[in-house]
Amino acid sequence: MKQQQESIYEKIGGTEKVRQLVEAFYPRVVADPLLKPLFPEDIGPVMEKQYMFLTQLLGGPSLYSDKYGLPMLRARHMPFPITPERAQAWLACMEQALDETGISGEERDAIWGRLVIAAHHMVNKSPSEE
């Protein structure tokens, strides 16, 4: 019988580490002048959705899909003007959050690769359209 490979979610510490990542990430987002205008004043529900999404993305339980259906990230982000600069600002905040939470090595590389693809996929405006 083939042994199931441990997910990134499990390798980094599961629920606790994903929560730490989200909690390190969002203060940076709301402090960023490019990103803050895209988020509601009450960031709590956004943080919870991000926690559920990252849990699922990293191989943990399908919390996001169970509650909201398929992620359909680009469609869900279309109402927001996401420029290449905003995608880069989002990634910079996430990079700092990964540093703060001590996620490193091949797990970090795997997470980073997925997040870079996702961030660039969200871009829906050029700088001149903003």
From TrEMBL:
Q: Does the keyword Heme apply?
A: yes
Query: GO molecular-function annotation terms?
Result: heme binding; metal ion binding; oxygen binding; oxygen carrier activity
Q: Where does heme bind?
A: H120
InterPro entries noted in UniProt: GlbO/GLB3-like, Globin-like_sf, Globin/Proto, Hemoglobin_trunc
- Which keywords accompany this UniProt record? Heme, Iron, Metal-binding, Transport
Which family is this protein grouped under?
Belongs to the truncated hemoglobin family. Group II subfamily.
What is the protein name for this chain?
Globin
Annotated organism of origin: Thermoactinomyces mirandus
